[in-house]
Amino acid sequence: MTRTHEFESARPLLFSIAYRILGSVADAEDAVQETWLRYAAAETEPDSAPAFLSTVVTRVAIDVLRSARVRRESYVGEWFPEPLLEDPYEDPERSAELADSVSMTALLLLERLSPLERAVFVLRDVFAFDFAEVAAAVGRSEAACRQLAVRARRHMGEGRPRFEADRRERQELAERFFDAIREGDVAALRELLAADVQAVGDGGGKTPVYGRGVAGADNVARLFGSMVPALFAIGGSFETRQVNGQPGAVFRDRDGKVVNALSLDIHGGRIQMIRSVVNPDKLRHVGPVADVRRVGRDTRRARRAAPADTAEDG
């Protein structure tokens, strides 16, 4: 098998490793490309191409993450990972587990870890590398990697929700949520939301979002119950998608350009968190990006012109 074929066979795994370490589609793609360049330039043939490629992409991702952390410290507002609509790495027996590992919640928990802890956790706990492979990839001893793994699991475990919904329950509740926002049914929305639900946006200081967030079932229900019908009124639309392995949607303007990507955190039988990525720099891989300020102005006008909401009485 040629180097090109070896690399292309490994590409889905390489991207999936890099994305979980970095939380950025663009940075993960760059890390995979750098891995190819180093592989193509290697003077000797590695004993194992997959092991060599996994090691290179992990080390490149660790270096990128260390520099990215400096940028994230000065990031304006909430920082969320770039939305991932499709994970190219497929393992039918572990599909649910892999989807959960790429959720917004999991990736934000990974932000608590050092770059080495994050890489060790991803390789060992997500992709089931043995400790010898992990040690070779991160350049540490097996004993050190075991310690890093213990620390990483402790940090990840401390932040996980107490009650996880099964995937069918998540999907059914999400469908009801999207039906309700499509109809502007505030009362139906309120029934689906946790009392302390939060809606938070990542605009990166470049586009308007919900200020510091909107909290509480009543406030969030009213926000989405009026905002989405107003988007429809100006010709916008949305399509439900799996966003980072969780129920979500991509919203578009009248020209089909991307306004934002939204994901739902569901557990305990209610929607606990609604995260919206609006920063255009994080949406370019999804498609052409809308002028969100214009969309915002137009939807506000549509909301003011709309008749008084009567959905709560229905």
What features would you describe in this structure?
The protein is α+β, with helices and mostly antiparallel strands and about 325 residues long. It has two domains: about 5-160, Butyryl-CoA Dehydrogenase, subunit A, domain 3 (Up-down Bundle); about 165-314, Nuclear Transport Factor 2, Chain: A (Roll). About 55% of the residues lie in helices and about 15% in strands. The protein has twelve helices and six strands. It has a six-stranded mixed beta sheet with strand order 2-1-6-5-4-3. A hairpin with a 2-residue loop joins β3 (about 235-245) and β4. The longest helix is centred in the first third of the chain and has 25 residues, at about 50-75.
What's this, in brief?
This protein is of the alpha+beta class.
Strand numbers in spatial order across the main sheet: 2-1-6-5-4-3
| Form type | elongated
Strand content: 5-15%
**How are helices and strands ordered from N to C?**
HHHHHHHHHHEEHEEEEH
What's the Cα radius of gyration?
21 Å
At the first level of CATH, the class of the largest domain is Mainly Alpha
Describe the main β-sheet briefly: 6 strands, mixed
Name given to the CATH architecture of the largest domain: Up-down Bundle
Helix content: 40-55%
The number of strands is 6
Number of domains: 2
pLDDT under 50 segments (min length 5)?
A: 310-314
Mean pLDDT score, rounded?
Answer: 91
Structural class: alpha+beta
Count the DSSP helices. Answer: 12
